[in-house]
TrEMBL record, chain A:
Top-level taxonomic group: Bacteria
GO molecular function annotations of the record: ATP binding; ATP hydrolysis activity
Function: Involved in beta-(1-->2)glucan export. Transmembrane domains (TMD) form a pore in the inner membrane and the ATP-binding domain (NBD) is responsible for energy generation.
Keyword annotations from UniProtKB, A to Z: ATP-binding, Nucleotide-binding, Transport
GO annotation, cellular component aspect: plasma membrane
Pfam families in the cross-refs: ABC_tran, BCA_ABC_TP_C
Name of the protein described by the UniProt record: Amino acid/amide ABC transporter ATP-binding protein 1 (HAAT family)
ABC transporter domain mapped to chain residues: 5-246
SUPFAM superfamilies linked to this entry: P-loop containing nucleoside triphosphate hydrolases
Originating species: Bradyrhizobium sacchari
TrEMBL record, chain B:
Any one cellular-component term (Gene Ontology): plasma membrane
Record keywords, A-Z: Cell membrane, Membrane, Transmembrane, Transmembrane helix
Name of the protein in its database record: Amino acid/amide ABC transporter membrane protein 2 (HAAT family)
Membrane-spanning intervals of the chain: 22-41, 48-73, 93-115, 172-190, 220-246, 258-281, 293-309
Membrane topology: Multi-pass membrane protein
Keyword Ribosomal protein: no
UniProt xrefs under CDD domains: TM_PBP1_LivM_like
InterPro entries: ABC_transp_permease, LivM-like
Subcellular location: Cell membrane
GO molecular-function terms, A-Z: branched-chain amino acid transmembrane transporter activity
Location (main, coarse): membrane
A family per Pfam: BPD_transp_2
TrEMBL record, chain D:
Key words of the record: Amino-acid transport, ATP-binding, Nucleotide-binding, Transport
ATP-binding recorded as keyword: yes
InterPro entries: AAA+_ATPase, ABC_transporter-like_ATP-bd, ABC_transporter-like_CS, BCAA_Transport_ATP-bd_LivF, P-loop_NTPase
Name recorded for this polypeptide: Amino acid/amide ABC transporter ATP-binding protein 2 (HAAT family)
A molecular function (GO) term: branched-chain amino acid transmembrane transporter activity
Organism: Bradyrhizobium sacchari
Automatic annotation (TrEMBL), chain E:
Protein name: Amino acid/amide ABC transporter membrane protein 1 (HAAT family)
Transmembrane segments: 12-31, 61-84, 96-113, 141-160, 189-212, 224-251, 257-277
GO biological process assignments: amino acid transport
Gene Ontology annotations for the cellular component aspect, listed alphabetically: plasma membrane
Membrane topology value: Multi-pass membrane protein
Alphabetical list of PANTHER family matching this protein: ABC TRANSPORTER ATP-BINDING PROTEIN, BRANCHED-CHAIN AMINO ACID TRANSPORT SYSTEM PERMEASE PROTEIN LIVH
Main location: membrane
Family: Belongs to the binding-protein-dependent transport system permease family. LivHM subfamily.
Coiled-coil residue spans: none
Record bears the keyword Protein biosynthesis: no
Protein location: Cell membrane
Length: 251, 342, 365, 237, 289
């Protein structure tokens, strides 16, 4: 199996606090990998380093074998690393059509076009239409994002990440704020991605995690506690003690 | 209609010309024939409008605030003045472009200082740059004429054919032509993916980067372009007034500009044009009534504008045009109402 | 038509507003005293504010000429403003009466410009000569870094060094300068006999206050200069530290003529404070317009008016003055004055007179 | 029975929009009420209306027998309402500790006691609000509401983003606090299963109206109600 | 050596002059995040009140100073209750437009009432002149400004960091809705703080009049200086603007003394360099607002 995304001895401190400690993670290509751990364990911080929002103090980040630790955020996206945010990061004044349109244009390298008008490329239009349909956003495509219901916004958040056609997709609590009845829809969309797309999921909803992941890493205080297939992690007494508690987990 | 062509249709929605826009430009052109004695003030408004449009490009679209936009205006003004004074380039249109490019170079150089930081920082850094340039222009008085400004500028005819006249007629139509061409250019740009990406950056830079937009490069590009526009406005100023003096760099010029744009509304290109008209007319009106205390009344108007709310005012002001257009075209609101600002 | 229009362009707002106010007041006073008709024509003043910004001046002048069809343009608070209007005066062939701006070159920029204010060369050279004669050997200069300041500095230096004096320190302060402390400290450390000062009207108070605060007066360093530092407008507010300051200037509210006494009294009555030299320049400016009209019999042809103005001589509150027929610039007495207390108020008391001084900026060429 | 919280015919919403047409609800001391409902049915609006930060058209809210309808939100808070907003609304330029001390009122809940409940917060006590992880913010929001020493504790989706082990402890704690006396609680939850064990009573909203109000035991017995109103299989797990 | 010390003293004094002018703005802009460009107008009001009391009515200077504070604070609270409070939630650009409007009005109004000539406040003899300490000339008035500023800074910083009022204020600024729902009387906190900021402005106006002079254009002329101090200092504390004032004051004075030709360049260059180095100001909180 090839490794899609890998960190080597990643270190990150905030002031005196070591938030990522000598972290070496390997995520195989096509994996459905989950990253769990107590609050403040440093999961979001890891994602932020992977995507370039934060700079690690030391360590390497390899995307498909190439070191991307020094690339700026947007270059990593163009290399196929895309993410969603724990708290929605959308463009309040733009419409879903524009939001997704931008993401598609950037990926196809038309983002810098300053002379050709938006909406005049049929390949881009086709792709936008496809995404809007897939995420049930077609009916609201001309509404301002701020005015959309939360659920739609959450869908848009994920649609934007997928519009970048990532080879590795990082999902930070994608189900946050989404009601139980709709959680599985979101994961269904993610699940329907091509098998060679690698997905890393952060989530506190154990039902979701265990129904989705084929491999789980547990992060505690910035360091890797354990890693393995879901059954093994669910049974691990250490994981139970620091994270799962007594909750019954369906594996 | 398929979903794809539907998407294409809606994506181009904003880029299509509205009737209101045609009407707007026709009215502007008509003014040139209706008020032959007021060319000067109208030229002044056109210059200010162009200058405000330049600020709108960075403020309304990319969300970069600036209190030092006069820096580029000033460089354009002095460049045009020096070119004419020393007979380096005698043809005004060519000189205009060269002056714009000079401002653009400065814009590019300073853009690196401006893209960092929060609003307040940007305000102060841009302001500082403009003040520094003013001080420099004062210090190098052998080139700039110091506080006296450049003296003895004489403009050659446009294209060697049309001379600038004392009543400002040539100046007016010249300025109008320049403004219109640059407006078309700006309009094209803001409706391109590039323009849309600027709005995305203004809305949420973090997300913009996370979909692959090279944020800094885009900001530098638009800042540089805006500097070009401002430089052109400055050069127009020198060419139509035959004056270039230190106050082209003045803080007041940048501050007025901000007021113009805030009055007119940002992010729809017409804001600068509308604001320039409103602001100058008010100034003219009040300073005719009371040359000493006109600032009081301008101040009062600003306060009222804010308290009543720009949105509401726009609705009132555009009520009649929209009503007419609705009758004629059978469409909903056609004259754009600006979105909120940064 | 039986009205004559005068377009008055002044800085009514902004940092130079007090100049504009004084001139406007003086003109109002004059017209109250002398009536608003001359040679059968009614005089109509149209006031525009240019905030001392040249392009506004130019627009205002153009509008006045094209739309209001004025017969004179007048006022002009600062040099760039006066210069900006010059080509228009030439093109429109109407007189431009400069009532405030003081650099030498102005009148050379158009044959239609006349000036009733002053030039800095006039007072700066005179005070230099006076200093040389009165045993002041070493002078430090502090001048505002703009055209009038540089004029003042250069003319002073020229006469002072020619007379054997030495300029030991030369500092140019920025035009917008909130605090003189470091500059004054430099002056103090240079230990001159006197400081030659020119700062724009308005900043004189700041300068004098800080001069006293720093104890330069006690260190025996005198202040000399053109009279702008001790402008009557502000003088009374400056405190006793200014006592003994010697300046050369065209006007003092304490000028001991009957005409001046009446003028000062009337001005005070009407506007509540003392007139300064700007007020007098405005007063004389409107007088020149009246006299010219009288001479042409109400004819408003610009060339005729300018001809009529050339060589005019009259008694002004500041003393006898005239318009040089060649340069169209003012010829006036320059007085050496010392600040003294009179009836509990501070005044520039004149003690020497240099008569009929022309603008040396031009005569030297 | 003395009702600690009594809402009567409350009509509330935002701007011109009415979200709760006519809401009546009362809660006795020691009760834990679970508020369920799909997205956008008005759960948050109800909570916010009790706090007083929505627009009220008509109706009343009473706290411990005192009409607080005309009080400002801050007065209501001081009269005994503790609020954990859905968005958490941590004050970002205040430290963890200041977030609590800024609003604290005298009573049994002190900052120290909150630290006992969430040791994680103690470790991060001098971090600024905007430097906390999502879960830490949630803990702080809860701790902050507790230091107000409220009579009515309003928790809008408090378990969102918290680790399972913390959720367990938190829910237990809320039960203990409420039943220890003088307090009642309303908990908004997405996941019915999580709190059926804790709540005494379950209220389900649909388009701003109560469509189901019963003891939680009844729901446990009859999961079809959940299925009907929330579209989830009740006891499926 | 004495030259250096004298300049140092002058620099410190100039810095404190900047600070006394700007500290009110550090409160309204820095802490309340309200862009109050009319700050200078409140300063001017304080200055003129003090001037009228001292010069025209013969009050002692030290009695008039507190009244400068009080009257500006009173004007501040009146305006806050009627106008400003509608603007807290509005965009910064609206705030700029509104407060510039107010400034224009105040300029014209003062010009109308007091005339456009510059005035000064008559000082008591104790505050005039210099005294010598080991050859270093210490200006009495400047020394007083330094002392007042030092006390103000300490006092303000204590109030803001050590008291609950400070954190309640910051909470109210961060999220007024949540703050109100959690028991903070937001309008009251804002009104009080705003009035206090205006009072400080008034005090600053009265204190600076001796050196800068008072005229109707005061608010516009010095606006840039207030803003420089607050941005360079950073907006999260009072010590930030305090240290920024010191730095700028000393830099400016030294620059003007040693290289007078550089005149105005020093302060602007310092500002740009500092802001590029630290975009949130010397003591800005990263990523706040
Ligand atoms: N800018 C910062 N400065 C200081 N500490 C920070 C900063 N950002 C995050 N932290 C701390 O780093 C730790 C890790 O935060 P992170 O957001 O990565 O946690 P997490 O694993 O995503 O937690 P959760 O599950 O609660 O979202 C937390 O303790 C947080 O307080
Ligand atoms: N600030 C607001 N202005 C206008 N309408 C609003 C506002 N907030 C919420 N609404 C509307 O009020 C209705 C109820 O929203 P509310 O947030 O109370 O639902 P909820 O049950 O809490 O949903 P969720 O499960 O998503 O938290 C929704 O239709 C929503 O669109
Ligand atoms: Mg997280
Ligand atoms: Mg809710």
């Amino acid at each position: 199996m090839t490794i899609a995304l890998e960190t080597q001895n990643l270190e990150k401190t905030f002031g005196g606090l070591r938030v990522t400690r000598d972290l070496s993670l390997k995520i195989e290509q096509g994996a459905r990998h989950a990253l769990i751990g107590p609050n403040g364990a440093g999961k979001t911080t890891v994602i932020n380093q992977l995507t370039g929002v934060l700079k690690p103090n030391s360590g390497r980040i390899l995307l498909e074998g190439q070191d991307i630790a020094d690339l700026p955020v947007h270059k990593r996206v163009l290399r196929g690393l895309s993410r969603t945010f724990q708290i929605n990061q959308l463009y309040p004044d733009l419409t879903p059509l524009e939001t997704i349109g931008l993401a598609v244009s950037e990926r196809l390298g038309h983002g810098g076009d300053w002379w050709r008008r938006m909406g005049t490329r049929s390949d881009v239009n086709g792709e936008i239409a496809e995404l809007l349909t897939r995420f049930h956003l077609l009916d609201v495509m001309n509404e301002q994002t701020v005015t959309l219901p939360y659920g739609k916004q959450r869908l848009l958040e994920i649609a934007v990440a997928i519009a970048a056609k990532p080879r590795v997709l990082l999902l930070d609590e994608p189900a946050a704020g989404v009601p139980e009845s709709e959680r599985h829809d979101i994961l269904a969309v993610v699940g329907s991605l091509p098998r060679d797309v690698t997905v890393l999921l952060i989530e506190h909803d154990m039902d979701l995690v265990f129904s989705f992941a084929d491999r789980i890493s547990v992060l505690v205080s910035g360091a890797l506690l354990t890693e393995g297939p879901p059954e093994q992690v669910a049974r691990d007494p250490q994981v139970k003690a620091v994270y799962l508690g007594e909750e019954a987990v369906n594996v | 209609m398929t979903a794809s062509s539907d998407v294409g249709f809606h994506a181009q929605r904003q880029a299509r010309w509205h009737y209101g826009e045609f009407a707007f430009w026709l009215v502007v052109l008509a003014c040139g024939f209706l008020f032959p004695t007021r060319y000067l003030i109208m030229t002044d408004i056109l210059r200010l409008a162009l200058f405000a449009m330049s600020l709108d490009l960075i403020l309304g679209y990319a969300g970069i605030v600036s209190l030092g936009h006069a820096a580029f205006f000033g460089v354009g003004a002095y460049a045009a003045g020096l070119l004419a004074l020393h007979g380096i380039i005698n043809e005004p249109v060519l000189a205009l472009i060269v002056a714009g490019l000079a401002a653009m170079v400065l814009g590019f150089a300073t853009s690196f200082l401006v893209i960092r930081g929060v609003d307040l920082t940007r305000l102060m850094v841009t302001l500082g740059i403009a003040l520094l340039l003013e001080a420099l222009a004062e210090r190098f008085s052998n080139i700039t004429g110091g506080t006296d400004g450049l003296q003895g500028i004489e403009m050659q005819p446009i294209f060697g054919e049309i001379p600038f006249d004392m009543f400002g007629k040539a100046g007016f139509f010249y300025s109008l032509a320049v403004l219109f061409v640059l407006f078309l250019f700006a309009r094209r740009i803001v409706h391109s993916p590039f323009g849309l990406s600027l709005r995305a950056i203004k809305n949420n830079p973090l997300r913009a980067a996370a979909i692959g937009i090279p944020v800094n490069r885009r900001l530098i590009a638009i800042y540089t372009l805006a500097a070009f526009y401002a430089g052109i406005a400055g050069a127009l100023f020198t060419q139509t007034t035959a004056i270039a003096s230190l106050d082209v760099f003045a803080f007041e010029r940048s501050a007025d500009l901000m007021l113009v744009l805030v009055i007119g509304g940002t992010g729809y290109l017409y804001g600068g044009l509308v604001g320039a008209v409103v602001f100058r007319m008010l100034q003219e009106l009040f300073s005719t009534i009371t040359p000493q205390y006109w600032q009081f009344w301008i101040g009062l108007v600003l306060v009222v504008i804010v308290l009543v709310g720009r949105q509401r005012l726009h609705r009132w002001v555009l009520y009649v045009p929209n009503l007419v257009i609705k009758q004629v075209a059978g469409r909903k609101s056609v004259v754009a109402v600006p979105e909120s600002d940064a | 038509e039986d009205s004559v229009k005068v377009g008055l362009i002044l800085p009514m707002t902004g940092g130079q507003a007090s100049t504009g106010k004084q001139i406007e007041n003086a003109i109002k006073l004059y017209m109250q005293q002398k009536g608003d008709t001359v040679a059968g024509k009614k005089i109509e003043i149209i006031l525009k504010d240019d905030a001392a910004i040249p392009d506004k001046t130019k627009t205002a002048a153009q509008e006045l000429i094209v739309n209001d069809k004025v017969n004179f343009i007048a006022g002009f608070g600062v040099t760039p403003a006066a210069l900006a209007a010059a080509p228009l005066a030439t093109q429109a062939k109407i007189p431009e009466v400069v009532m405030a701006a003081g650099t030498s070159i102005i009148t050379e920029r158009s044959p239609y410009i006349v000036r009733t204010s002053f030039t800095l060369a006039q007072s700066s050279t005179i005070i230099a000569d006076w200093a040389v004669k009165n045993g002041i050997k070493k002078v430090a200069t502090l001048t505002s870094d703009y055209a009038p300041g540089n004029d003042a500095l250069n003319f002073f230096k020229q006469n002072f060094t020619a007379g054997g004096g030495e300029v030991v320190e030369e500092v140019k302060t920025p035009l917008a300068n909130p605090d003189f402390a470091p500059f004054l400290q430099r002056m103090k450390d240079a230990k001159p006999d006197a400081i030659f000062v020119f700062v724009p009207a308005g900043q004189g108070g700041n300068f004098m206050k800080q001069y006293a605060e720093r104890g330069l007066d006690k260190a025996g360093i005198k202040v000399i200069g053109p009279g702008d530092v001790t402008d009557d407008d502000l003088l009374n507010n400056m405190g006793d530290a200014v006592l003994g300051t010697v300046t050369a200037h065209l006007y003092s509210a304490a000028h001991p003529s009957a005409m001046n006494k009446d003028f000062v009294a009337a001005y005070k009555k009407a506007f509540g404070n003392r007139p300064g030299f700007m007020a007098v320049s405005g007063y004389d400016g409107i007088n020149l317009i009246y006299e010219a009209l009288k001479k042409t019999g109400g004819d408003t042809n610009g060339d005729k008016l300018i001809e009529a103005m050339k060589g005019q001589k009259w008694e002004s509150p500041r003393g006898p003055i005239s318009i040089d027929p060649e340069t169209r610039d003012i010829v006036q007495n320059i007085y050496i004055r010392k600040v003294e207390k009179v009836d509990g108020e501070l005044y520039n008391v004149e003690f020497a007179t240099f008569e009929a001084v022309k603008d040396l900026g031009k005569t030297k060429k | 029975m003395s009702d600690l919280l009594a809402i009567d015919a409350l009509r509330a919403g935002y701007g011109e929009a009415v979200v709760l047409p006519k809401m009546s609800l009362s809660l006795a001391e020691g009760q834990v009420l679970a508020l369920l409902g799909r997205n956008g049915t008005g759960k948050t609006t109800l909570i916010n209306s009790i706090v007083g930060v929505t627009r009220r058209f008509s109706g009343t809210v009473a706290l411990a027998g005192i009409d607080v309808t005309s009080l400002r939100p801050d007065q209501r808070a001081r009269a005994g309402i503790g609020w954990v907003p859905q968005e958490r609304n941590i004050f970002r330029s205040l430290t963890v500790e200041e977030n609590m001390t800024a609003v604290a009122q005298p009573g049994p809940w002190t900052v120290e006691k909150v630290y006992e409940m969430f040791p994680r917060l103690k470790e991060r006590r001098s971090n600024f609000g905007n430097q906390l992880s999502g879960g830490e913010q949630q803990m702080l929001a809860i701790g902050r509401a507790l230091t107000l020493n409220p009579k009515v504790l309003l928790l809008d989706e408090p378990t969102e983003g918290l680790a399972p082990i913390i959720v367990e402890e938190l829910l237990k704690a809320i039960g203990t606090i409420t039943r220890a006396g003088g307090i009642c609680s309303i908990i908004v939850e997405q996941n019915a299963q999580k709190i059926l064990g804790l709540a005494d009573r379950v209220v389900i909203l649909e388009r701003g109206t109560i469509v189901h109000d019963a003891p939680s035991a009844a729901l446990k017995a009859d999961p079809s109600v959940l299925e009907r109103h929330l579209g989830v299989a009740g006891a499926a797990h | 050596m004495t030259a250096i010390l004298t300049n140092l003293f002058d620099g410190v004094a100039y810095g404190m002059l900047l600070f006394v002018l700007a500290c009110g703005l550090a409160v309204t802009l820095g802490l309340m995040n309200f862009v109050n460009l009319a700050h200078g107008a409140f300063a001017m009001a304080g200055g003129y009140v003090c001037m009228v009391l001292v010069n025209r009515m013969g009050w002692p200077f030290f009695a008039a100073l507190p009244l400068a504070f009080v009257s500006s604070a009173a004007i501040g609270i009146a305006l806050e209750r009627t106008l400003y409070r509608h603007l807290y939630t509005r965009s910064h650009l609206d705030q700029v437009l509104f407060t510039i409007g107010l400034t224009f009005m105040s300029v014209a109004a003062v010009d109308y009432i007091q005339g456009s000539s510059r005035v000064f406040i008559n000082l008591p003899a104790v505050l005039q002149g210099q005294f010598d300490v080991f050859g270093v000339g210490i200006g009495r008035y400047r020394l007083m400004i330094i002392v007042i500023c030092g006390l103000l800074t300490i006092g303000l910083q204590m109030v803001l960091t050590k008291t609950r009022f400070g954190s309640r204020l910051r909470a109210a600024v961060d999220d007024p809705r949540a703050a109100s729902g959690l028991g903070i009387n937001v309008p009251q906190v804002f009104a009080f703080t705003f009035a206090f900021g205006c009072g400080l402005a008034g005090l600053g106006g009265a204190l600076s009049a001796e050196i800068l002079g008072l005229d109707p254009y005061f608010p516009l002329k010095f606006m840039i200086y207030f803003l420089i101090v607050v941005t360079v200092g950073g907006s999260s504390s009072i010590t930030g603007p305090f240290l920024a004032s010191l730095l700028l004051g000393i830099g400016d004075v030294a620059g003007k003394y040693y290289v007078p030709k550089m005149g105005p360049f020093v302060i602007y260059t310092m500002m740009i360099v500092i802001l590029i180095w630290r975009p949130n100001g010397l003591f800005g909180r990263t990523a706040a607002r």
